Amino acid sequence: MKVIDATNLIVGRMASAVAKELTRGESVVIVNAEKSIITGNRESILNKYKKRRERSSIVNPARHGPFFPRTPEGIIRRAVRGMLPYKKAMGKEAFKRLKVFAGLPDEFKESKFVTLDNADVSKLKIPKYIKLREISRLL
């Protein structure tokens, strides 16, 4: 089982690496989900997420999807799910091996964290980003 600390990691790059591990049969735990970041212009990112939340059905807006998560751990789970073949049995089994937590649970405090060097925020040439904590708070 791999435990990944998502502090200052870019969500898309982290999600692609996690999806690759999940398809290999590895179990992955992501902690500190609220401290991960999404790169780009702050206003355009917020507008994009607000539009996703407002999508609804004409017939019955309350019961029909698509449903988009508001919490940081839900947003990361959804990003990883988008990179898996989720409609196939292999993708569903891989998605079940993923656990995402906001904060650091007691059971993972002593475990060794895996770092993803290619997903770190220090790789950005232009540091324009927003943390998932802010996005979920504004949704």
Short description:
This protein is an alpha/beta fold and 139 residues long.
Description:
The structure is a single chain. This protein is α/β, with parallel strands linked by helices. It has a single domain, classed as Ribosomal protein L13 (Ribosomal Protein L13p, Chain: A, Alpha-Beta Complex). 37% of the residues lie in helices and 12% in strands. Helix 1 links the parallel strand 1 (2-5) and strand 2. Helix 1 (11-23) crosses helix 3 (72-82). The longest helix has 13 residues, at 11-23. The relative contact order is 0.27. The model has no long low-confidence stretch (mean pLDDT 90).
The tally of domains stands at 1
Question: What is the helical fraction, as a range of percent?
Answer: 25-40%
Mean pLDDT: 90
Q: Bin the strand percentage.
A: 5-15%
Structural class by SSE content:
alpha/beta
Q: Low-confidence parts, pLDDT < 50 over ≥5 residues?
A: none
